[in-house]
## 1
Amino acid sequence: MPRLALYALTVCVLAVVAAVVSFTQGSWLGVLWILIAGVSSNMTWYYVRRAKVGRTAAGG
């Protein structure tokens, strides 16, 4: 897995944890964390697919 994908996945997991903590404390700020988790999840899939296409184009 590419390094940028791992970073984006880490941000996604941390954002989900932050959203859970925020919602359990009764704060609506968790909505923002859910949005950040969604964006970072999409970034993770993008970098994984881009690396897969790069390997296929390189003949591997």
Note: The mean pLDDT is 94.
## 2
Amino acid sequence: MEQLALFWHRRDLRISDNAGLYKALKSGLKVQAIFIFDSQILAHLSKNDQRVLFIHQTIQNLQQAYQKLGASLWIFHGNPTEIIPQLVQKHEIKHVFCNRDYEPNALKRDKSVYDALTKIGCQFSGSKDHVIFEKEEIVKSDGNPYHVFTPYMKRWKEQLNDFYLQPYPVEKYIHNLNPNNHVELPTLSELGFSEIQTQHFPSAEIPQTIIQSYENTRDFPAINGTTRLSIHLRFGTISIRELAKQALKTNEKYFNELIWRDFYQMILFFYPRTIEETFRKEYGRIEWEFDEKLFQAWCDGKTGYPLVDAGMRELNETGHMHNRVRMVVASFFCKHLFHDWKLGERYFAEKLLDFELASNVGGWQWAAGCGVDAAPYFRIFNPTTQQERFDPQFEYIKKWVPEFGTSDYPQPIVEHKWARERTLENYKKVLKAE
């Protein structure tokens, strides 16, 4: 009986250019791929969560891809910290491979798995696959992490060479996959989720024409000017190396956006407290207000600010919101309503198909002025000015707010000038007390 290794798919739901799978296959052991529907994560999700349906469809495709190679994907539902050690003991597994995840709960989970496997004499190895540079790979000369994006980006680009964008040639070692019988994929119903698809999942194909003109189209929500690949980067259905390599050849502006992704992953790794706390600790003393009616008006897209309302309605219906509009919506929440950024961050986390903790927390703290951004707290978007610049013909707004311009559309729930002055005054109080 040949010795086995496991490759544990997580946020890397593909076979090609997969760092951890490549290293498993090259180890000399026969490799069995597995995926676990993590009950610890699923327990907190709505039964209609479309991301679970996306993952389920993706796993079905991945399973078929393994079958075409004469192998199989073992699929489980439960707690990975229990399932992995059980599998290791049952099948006398010598090594478990995976790709690293940098979120605090994932690190805690992986530490538990590592400890359990060490006790029973099984190796556990992680690889870098989700980002181009991770952890301490891009730091200042004194070894401390960067807190500002621009110098981080400069150092990132200085360190980049062809090696970091090379694909992992999984195909060379594909013969080392463990030939095995087909394993049934549990249905969504069996997992406790709805099988009804209510939202569109963007294509995983890299749209070259959009990348080529990205800097000219990216800010206009009525235009199909963004790649919509974020859900695929989130779940690893495409390779970040492949996308970065194409972006580097095609459009620097788009390429820089991919560096932002690495930046926020690095910040989360070094500062996991930012999930609950402001990066700049002095801003943690801000006494946010809360009004249930105002909060609900924001959630429902009925604030009386049409660009904000269009964005929220797009999010609620599709699981997507244009990036320019995300900034306006988040700024409005924190600095017009003066509500705690964490409430908005959690709402996005629940609704966004492409939700990724590092970028979501980073983006919301950027909007609130309490994160790593170098800009001062008094950057406050005027939703009306933003609409005039980026949706001057109201095309995006009319698509999502059909009653705009009629008596059915609500009056603004807060007055811009007053809200801006209130926010500035509150921030000044906190900083003066420093």
Note: The chain has three domains: 1-130, 133-167+210-270, 275-432.
## 3
Amino acid sequence: MKETTKPPYAIIAILFTGAFVAIFNQTLLNIALPEIMIDLNVDAATAQWLVTGYMLVNGILIPASAYLIQRYSNRAIFIVAMSLFSLGTLLAALAPTFAILLIGRMVQASGAALMMPLLMNVMLAAFPVEKRGQAMGVFGMVMVVAPAIGPTLSGFIVQTYSWRILFFIVLPVALIPLLLGIFKLKNLTFQNRELSLDPLSLVLSSLGFGGLLYGFSSAGSLGWENPAVYLTIAVGLLSLTAFAFRQMKLKEPLLELRVYKHPMFALSSVISVTLSMAMFSAMILMPIYIQTIKGISPIQSGLMMLPGALVMGVMSPITGRIFDRYGAKVLALPGLALVVITTYLFSNLTLDTGYYEIMAIYTLRMFGISMVMMPVMTNGLNQLPMKFYPHGTAINNTLQQVSGAIGSAFLVTLMNTRTESTAQELVASGTSAQEATIPAMLEGINFSFTVSTYIALAAFLLALFIKKPDQRATERQKERVYKQRYAE
């Protein structure tokens, strides 16, 4: 795989369009679930599988993306991915039953799961190290704006039309990049290696990441004492342990875990995981606070979060340019300081906190996150030899999925536990059970944000150790270290 002297902007534009549709679709159904429950006559636990199932397929396929990207061309992967995504969208739009809708949703996910790692690898291959920050900044803009638009658009459409319209809108938008891919997309200079796929690694990876994602995603609704939660988490941990040991023994591992021998990549992974957990506190807890405690409609809730996501999208290319010139640390420290401060402000919410005050704090928080996420991730990837890019991007994307699920479940559990204990204290002091509900929930939300503040503070302390990888070593020199192990 060789770096091109001039980035293939036409190829990247096609891939960007496909990735935008795939990421946009990920959050599209969140607000539509109540309407789907009524229309298809299913309960909340069953309807939630439209979100959980999508996440599970992503968790299973993203680790395998490293193998697929090395084995097949970017054109072949893109066409297959967008074909699966389009087929799943059509199935979901026409689904007569919930079972068909769920199948369509999971077929969608099987295509979407390959888009993010594919695009990141093409970006790394197309741009030289000194220009990757700006390129990955544009990539970050797509990654942030797409899921932010999803709930807002979904709320408007579901309130006005049928939930099926969501899929009928996505379908033509997905077919456009598919047709462009078939007729216009060319292969970048990937070396398609004759790799062998280890079936046991794939099984262990699926059980490991799938078990963790399902277990932690279900904990908030089922409770930690439910066997479906703690048993799947236990299976996931055991499977991942076995998976890690097996990868260290294989000549051609499914995921090359030796990337963690590179200190900046290891540090960037830990910071990204920590930041993802802190970030999800606002994404999960704020809608609960706004809709349940403040009584604001879902559409207004989505609109409140939209400016923050748009600011993050606008800032991504700018922070990319700054990263190229000054490195990640200059951005990460002030960015994380802003995240810590704004998260602390969210831990002091009251019944009278204003709508626009919340919007301003949330927007500042997302501004801080925009200074950290992509620069830190790109800094870590820059230290890897080129042959390890597929493994690095696969690991980063998988960890984001898993840490998001873990962070959500952990913070929701903290909120529920604190809410119950506070309600009991209020009732014991003479407050009626009905009057205690809202103050107790507010205390639970504030407590979760307090814990999230400490998580963000941990990420800030880790960022003190960020260094810019030594770019004097060429990709060819770094490749020599692994020449014997990865001889073509």
Note: Residues 389-428 form the longest helix (40 residues).
## 4
Amino acid sequence: MVKKQTAGRDNLGEFAPKFAELNDDVLFGEVWSRAAEMPAHDRSLITVASLLTQGVPQLKDHMRIAKENGVTKTEMVELITHLAFYAGWPKAWSAFGYAKEIYK
């Protein structure tokens, strides 16, 4: 079961209420909760891969979520190593910094 997400409302609820609602209720509420179609573990791997290739700050948060969803250190290291050749070496270095902190 996916944990109820409130980050949108907590961070943007007053400033951008519709965006906050879509983040919490649609993205994390409806899409992430479709475990029968794809488990959270796999969604996390895909999400981390996508964010790593883009080099966005949300990568670290989603790596934490991935760990909570059962993604192992070995899987995370392999994902980053594999993507280093496709997304870029500097992005992989940055991702390893986050992964070391999260999986210590």
Note: The mean pLDDT is 94.
